[in-house]
Description:
Helix content is 19%, strand content 42%. It is of the alpha+beta class. The longest helix has 18 residues, at 2-19.
Amino acid sequence: MKQILITSLLFTFFLIFNVNSGTTSFGVSIINSPEIKDNLDLSKKKISLKNAEVKFNDGSNYVGPIRKNKLHGKGKLVLPDGTIFEGKFKSNKFVKKHSRKTRTFVKIDLKKGIVLENQMKVAGLSKYYPAEIIDGEFKLSKKGELMVSQDKKNASGGDAGSGGSGGGGC
């Protein structure tokens, strides 16, 4: 008898909290929140939700606020491999710093999915560049090396006679 009562209470609790929950799909994601109506067309309307759960086609899951169709505020993103990014999301972006010079940059798009990019700073330059993690250490990727060489060339003024990418005259 006691077990039947507990089961009934749990079932009632489940119904109360799930009946009022709306679901809509948008691109590669499914958004679930008690604050939305089922099948809301997000391509025509921007929504803001204090608490939402977003499931992506790749198996990633986000729980937290959404502002104007973007993940924005204190939330948690769990990737299919178990990697967790928790903290402040800002306009579909999240940065996890590993050190002063290395970080993982996460870009989320409800239509297209999630892109992770390891990045690092290079001495003498102020921005982050694409990197790879090899044997536990951050190393510039080929794209990062190219960007660094271009930025160093531009910072030193480049070679005026080489016809490089310098600005044009009047």
